[in-house]
Amino acid sequence: MRGNRLQVSRGVTDRLHKKTADKLRSWRVSIIRKHGRYLGTVDAANEKAAEAAAVAQFNLSDEQRKGLIVRERV
């Protein structure tokens, strides 16, 4: 019985991870100064979440955040 419960809970966990992963999209992050500078990519569900993730990942200040451009990768 115990082994069966473990397999069932793993299956549920796998499905939850797949649903979350399906919702995440990849976003390109750039910052505008005199010229555009590509910073990298972040994974997030929407543009606002991508911006927040970029600020945290790239340690951006409030001033740098104003010039931030986040675009979905296709």
Task: Describe what you observe in this structure.
With 74 residues, this protein is α+β, with helices and mostly antiparallel strands. It has a domain at 24-74. It is built from 3 helices and 3 strands. The chain has helices at 2-23, 47-57, 62-66; strands at residues 25-32, 36-44, 68-72. Strands 2-1-3 form a 3-stranded antiparallel β-sheet. The longest helix is centred in the first third of the chain and has 22 residues, at 2-23.
Tell me which oligomeric state these chains represent.
Answer: single chain
- In this structure, how is the largest beta sheet organized? 3 strands, antiparallel
* Strand arrangement, major sheet: 2-1-3
Rg calc: 18 Å
Poorly predicted spans: none
**Helix/strand structural class:** alpha+beta
**How many E-type strands?**
3
Strand content: 25-35%
Average of pLDDT = 83
Order of helices and strands: HEEHHE
Number of helices: 3
| Morphology | globular
| Termini separation | 46 Å
Please estimate the helix content: 40-55%
